[in-house]
Amino acid sequence: MMVAKTVLVALLTFFLVCGFFIGIGYMFEIQSLMFSFYEETPTGFTAGGSVLSFILGLICSFFVGNFYHKKMTH
User: What residue ranges are annotated as transmembrane (predicted)?
Assistant: First the structure.
């Protein structure tokens, strides 16, 4: 049961951090934090976007998950 809670905390942290950075990216128009699956252009469409928010979310969820697990075991 404790492993499930650790995974849930890490997953929740991932979504919150990703949402926070993507929101900041769109609010202040920071291209390196924005994520768009596709954009229509006059010549067609382009797919892509920055994955920096997701990388930061993974890093934060790793550290928060480990911290939570160590705190619960001691």
Answer: 7-28, 48-68
pTM over 0.70: yes
CB atoms within 10 A of CB 63: 12
The per-residue pLDDT for range 28-45, each reduced to its tens digit, is 999 888 887 766 778 877
| Three-state DSSP state, 35 | strand
Name every residue whose Cβ is closer than 8 Å to that of residue 51 and which is 6 or more positions away in sequence.
35
Please state, in angstroms and rounded to a whole number, the distance separating the CA atoms of residues 59 and 28. Answer: 23
In sequence order, the β-bridge partners of residue 45 are 40
Enumerate the H helices of the chain as residue ranges: 2-27, 52-73
